[in-house]
């Protein structure tokens, strides 16, 4: 960030009054330009015993498998964003369920939120950001070819909870939370 | 947003290739300037039967009572942000607990996240953004003078869960989620 988005003047990095961190400040118009982490919202689309995954057609992690997910947009709720991404990336219509996982990815300046989701039909279709989309039984999940630690961790939590019967009552789902380290590899 | 923060050229509002929404685009350097909702992270600081609240010394809602909360910063996790805000606004040191509520406030372009928190001692002190800080029993909560719908809703959920014994086992806390409408008044 080099120039003020309001008046095009050069920005300086300085701690404003009553603040404790350096911010990009415009000394011309007085604007303070804050930067904050962004939310990535996605779903765990379920049909019977199977989970829907997408193979990425974009960087980062081109060619690796992911749950449908993307940046939360202005004007939508976190669950609406998860539904939208599931349609856009996987062509699947889901009934969105409860929040299931929240993972902080500090080094990427992101918070990842995944919702349980029921596919209404077994229909799906790769969107422009997906090379292919497929449904997987637990034993067939491509664990070595997953795109992100948050996806791997969410799938691990999902199958563990399902095996333990913890997903049987929608009103008592326990949300899983964890912080992901930069050093984590798939 | 009027000028490119990278090169100071005027921005245009246009839908990029492979996108479905208008974005602020710089035709000079090619930068796309995305805007996304921000996270507000806070805590429900508990000491015995009491909850700690802060009376706001800043707009919006100057003079009204709130749970300690503020914008998530780059470089911190959601729970670390909740701890920081509790120190900054209320001078209270807490052991942060599980995530308790997630509320979408779409019209404010915000997602609010509140964590359960245990105060280590009954000590607190108003920070620069608070006029005063005080501990309240449930019967003394200033319901008519709360700052935000998300704070009121989170406190209602907290006292309902406490009364029902649902907070006794830290490993089985159910996260509450709701979307807040623009029309909601305290
Ligand atoms: Zn300016
Ligand atoms: Zn530019």
TrEMBL record, chains A, B:
Gene3D superfamilies, sorted: 2.20.70.10, Nucleoside Triphosphate Pyrophosphohydrolase
Q: Which cofactor does it need?
A: Mg(2+)
PANTHER family noted in UniProt: NUDIX HYDROLASE 23, NUDIX HYDROLASE 23, CHLOROPLASTIC
> Can you say what this protein is called?
NUDIX hydrolase
UniProt entry keywords in alphabetical sequence:
Hydrolase
Does this entry carry the keyword Hydrolase?
yes
| PROSITE patterns assigned to the protein according to its UniProt record, in alphabetical order | NUDIX (PS51462), NUDIX_BOX (PS00893)
State the InterPro entries in the record. NUDIX_hydrolase-like_dom_sf, NUDIX_hydrolase_CS, NUDIX_hydrolase_dom, Nudix_N
Could you confirm whether the keyword Hydrolase appears in this record? yes
Q: Which GO terms describe its molecular function?
A: hydrolase activity
What are the top taxonomic ranks of the organism?
Bacteria, Pseudomonadati, Pseudomonadota, Betaproteobacteria, Burkholderiales
Q: Where is the Nudix hydrolase domain?
A: 36-159
